[in-house]
Amino acid sequence: MFTIIIPTHERPQLLQRTLESLLAQTCQDFKLVIVSDTATYLPPYNHLAQFAGRFDYVLRCSGRPGPAPSRDMGQAIADGEYIIFLDDDDTFDPDHLAKLKARLEIDRPELLFCDLQVQFENRAVSPPELLGPTHKVSIADVTDDSVYVRNRIPNSCIAYRRDVLQGVTNNPDMIIYEDWDFLLNVLNGRTLTHLATDGVVIHKTEPDAPQNMRRGNSNEGLVVQVMLELYQRYPARNMETRLARQALLAGADLHYDLSYF
């Protein structure tokens, strides 16, 4: 049913936690592809042994570090009906894949996305210290058009039917929002389907913490530039979406003429 692709970069302890959440799945109908862009630590052999015959661990020795080319390499060898790109610091609740599979078997939607939980943690200690309870986040109001304005769907929350990814790759030149670019590329002419389950746990540190590993917080100066590039690359599908883009930027006191995109 699933191929789960995990790009990873020098975070062995977080990767092991992610693998433990996969080992705990009540649905084991998946293969695993882990793509590491560095060889600075040994693969988690003890965990991988428990996926015997169901995993590939790939060392990517070319190209610059980052998840985009690693996801592409994983996608090239994926053979599941559905593909999930799981970040190496996120986890799934034990029944998450079972709920996805039950929904997917009904009518094989092209892109299925779900709600999520956010867990803040302190990564200055080992293992990370959880900071309070998880926060449930519903993104049920996300629509095809709204993704053309901003992306609120974490990468780990989407199951892509493999045939819709034919010929679609990540942009290796993007420092941020490459997942948004990828989703817009896939979404062209297709429809998102929402599943009301929140079995994806997005683990975060506080935005100003030095241990924050997420690139978006360290590249805030690129946000507007990259948004405008995406707006130009993927023109609004209707006037309502175009106006929503304009309003989003105006809300941040940014005024651009988006008449043509």
Automatic annotation (TrEMBL):
Pfam families to which the protein is assigned, alphabetical: Glycos_transf_2
Domain Glycosyltransferase 2-like: residue ranges: 3-129
InterPro entries from the UniProt entry: Glyco_trans_2-like, Glycosyltransf_2, Nucleotide-diphossugar_trans
Keyword Magnesium: no
Domain of life: Bacteria
SUPFAM superfamilies: Nucleotide-diphospho-sugar transferases
Gene3D superfamilies in UniProt: Spore Coat Polysaccharide Biosynthesis Protein SpsA, Chain A (3.90.550.10)
Organism: Duganella alba
UniProt keyword Lyase present: no
Protein name stated in the entry: Glycosyltransferase
Keyword terms, alphabetized: Transferase
Chain coiled-coil ranges: none
GO MF, one example: transferase activity
